[in-house]
Amino acid sequence: SYMAGLALGGYLFGKLIDRRDDQLKIYGLLIIGAGVYAVILPFFLKAVSPLYSLIYRGFGVNFAVLSIFRFIISLTLLIIPTTLMGGTLPTLTRFMTRQSATVRINLGRLYSLNTFGAVLGCFLSAFFFLPFFGMIKTILIAATIDILAGFIAIILYRETLKAETEVIHYADEKNIH
User: Fold this and answer.
1) Nearest-CA neighbor of 53 among 39, 73, 38, 37?
2) What is the full per-residue pLDDT of the chain (177 aa) written as tens digits?
3) Which of 11, 119, 125, 134 is deepest in the core (most CB within 10 A)?
4) Among 71, 67, 81, 70, CA closest to 8
5) Residue/partner pairs of 156-164 with CB below 8 Å, 24 or more apart
6) What is the pTM of this model?
């Protein structure tokens, strides 16, 4: 479910983002969406728990059938946030290639930072946040970090847009083309 959503997000947003000039804003919206979904996901899980119990009672301990239903439920619940997460890397990649002449170096840094952030997040969650704060508070911490990062990206986008507009106005005033 997780990998399917990442692949779908990479594919969909990879195609969409090439036609846009607001990649940083889109990135911010994607991670805000993933963060907000992380907050409401426990409620969705609680809501589908009776469904899973019903399936279990209907099919007993048939591992194959239960696994199929578990996958369908997981895919249904996780396809939205994982698609949003999958869209972040192509969106940032497009932003970085638009902004810089040193594309390979920046993309390498971006990919390594993205991977390092994922590893660090897994490590901190497993060995620090979950033991000390529990599941719900850990989810809220991660969601808060995502949402804050999203707002920072949107603010940076607006500042970049404002700076570009000022340069264009200055060039028009000075007749520089």
Assistant:
1) 73
2) 889 999 999 999 998 998 888 999 999 999 999 999 999 999 999 999 898 888 888 877 788 888 898 899 999 999 999 999 999 999 988 887 776 566 666 677 777 887 888 899 889 999 999 999 999 999 999 999 999 999 999 999 998 877 766 656 556 666 665
3) 125
4) 81
5) 156/24, 157/22, 157/24, 157/25, 157/28, 158/25, 160/24, 161/22
6) 0.81
By CB neighbour count within 10 A (0-12 exposed, 13-18 middle, 19+ buried), where does 83 fall? Answer: buried
CA distances from 44 to 47, 78, 106, 135 (A): 5, 10, 38, 15
Rg value, the chain, Cα: 21
Instruction: Give the separation between CA 128 and CA 81, rounded to whole angstroms.
Output: 24
84 sits in which H/E element: helix 63-99
Helices 23-59, 130-173: axis angle to 10 degrees equals 150
Question: What is the DSSP-derived secondary structure letter of residue 18?
Answer: T
